[in-house]
C-alpha cells in the first residue's frame, strides 16, 4: 500500500495546486490512500464545509487539522457528522469532533490519528497522555498514521522516538516548511519532521509578505491575506509492506 500525506493546504492557491496535481501524484506513485491536513484550507484558516467536500470529491480519505480548525464557527456545526475530518485528539474534550478514525481500504484497516504539540502552540493536553489513552483502547487496525501538528522540531522527534515501532508513519505539520529528514527510525516508524505547505511560493508561509513584515517590524496587529501566484505542493509518500504492514520507505515529494 502506498500512502500519500500532504501538509497544510493554504487558501485558494493551495486548493488550486492540489486539484491540479493530485491525479498526477496518484498515478506517479500508485497511491492507495490519501491524508491531507486541511486546517488552512479556507482563506488560510479552518475548513468550510464546501472545502471538506472539495477534498472528498478529489479522493481524499482522511482530513487532519490543527490549532486553526475551529476558526470558522461552521466547523462546530458539521464536524460531528464527518468522522473522517479530525481535530487534534489532545484538544479540549469540550470541543466536538474525533481525534482519530479507522478507514478500511484495500482490505487494510488504516487508523489516522491527529495530535497537536504543546510547545509554542495554543493550549492543549499532553500528547503522551492522549496517545497512551488511545493505545489502551486496543483498537484493531493494521496501519497507524499520525499527523503531529506542532511548532518545535524536537517535540515532534521526541514523540516519534518514544513510539517508534508502534506508529507506522509519523508526519509533522504546521510550520509550512518541508524538512529534509525523512527516514525510517530504528524500530521501523516512517518519519518526517514536517510535510511542508501546499500554497503560494512567493509568500510567507502562505500569506502575502507585506502585512507579515509590517507586523514583525512594528508589533502592531494586522490582517494577513493569502498570497496569489505560482504554487507548489509538498508532502510524503509512505510505502507499506502488504504482508507485514510495516513501513518500507518514505520519500519527500514536491510538485
From TrEMBL:
Fe cation 2 binds at residues 39, 67, 149, 174. Keywords: Metal-binding. GO terms for molecular function: 2',3'-cyclic-nucleotide 3'-phosphodiesterase activity; metal ion binding. Fe cation 1 binds at residues 8, 39-40, 176. CDD domains: MPP_DR1281. InterPro entries: Metallo-depent_PP-like, YmdB-like. SUPFAM superfamilies: Metallo-dependent phosphatases. The active site is at 68 (proton donor). It holds the Pfam family YmdB. This is TIGR00282 family metallophosphoesterase. It comes from Mesoplasma syrphidae. The lineage of its organism: Bacteria, Bacillati, Mycoplasmatota, Mollicutes, Entomoplasmatales.
Amino acid at each position: 500500500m502506498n500512502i500519500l500525506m500532504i501538509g497544510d493546504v493554504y487558501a485558494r492557491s493551495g486548493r488550486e495546486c492540489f486539484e491540479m496535481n493530485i491525479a498526477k501524484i496518484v498515478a506517479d506513485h500508485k497511491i492507495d490512500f490519501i491524508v491531507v491536513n486541511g486546517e488552512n484550507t479556507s482563506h488560510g484558516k479552518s475548513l468550510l464545509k464546501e472545502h471538506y467536500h472539495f477534498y472528498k470529491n478529489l479522493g481524499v480519505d482522511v482530513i487532519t487539522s490543527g490549532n486553526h480548525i475551529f476558526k470558522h464557527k461552521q466547523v462546530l456545526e458539521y464536524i460531528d457528522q464527518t468522522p473522517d475530518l479530525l481535530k487534534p485528539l489532545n484538544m479540549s474534550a469540550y470541543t466536538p469532533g474525533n481525534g482519530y478514525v479507522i478507514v478500511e481500504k484495500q482490505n487494510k484497516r488504516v487508523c489516522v490519528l491527529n495530535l497537536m504539540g504543546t510547545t509554542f502552540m495554543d493550549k492543549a493536553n499532553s500528547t503522551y497522555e492522549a496517545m497512551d489513552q488511545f493505545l489502551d483502547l486496543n483498537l484493531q487496525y493494521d496501519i497507524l498514521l499520525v499527523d503531529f501538528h506542532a511548532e518545535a522540531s524536537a517535540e515532534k522527534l521526541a514523540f516519534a522516538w518514544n513510539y517508534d515501532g508502534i506508529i507506522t508513519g509519523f508526519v509533522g505539520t504546521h510550520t509550512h516548511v518541508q524538512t529534509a529528514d525523512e527516514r525510517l527510525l530504528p524500530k521501523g516508524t516512517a518519519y518526517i519532521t514536517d510535510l511542508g505547505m501546499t500554497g503560494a511560493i512567493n509568500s510567507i508561509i502562505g500569506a502575502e509578505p507585506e502585512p507579515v513584515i509590517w507586523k514583525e517590524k512594528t508589533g502592531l496587529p494586522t490582517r494577513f491575506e493569502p498570497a496569489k501566484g505560482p504554487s507548489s505542493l509538498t508532502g510524503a509518500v509512505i510505502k507499506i509492506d502488504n504482508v507485514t504492514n510495516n513501513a518500507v520507505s518514505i520519500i519527500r515529494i514536491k510538485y
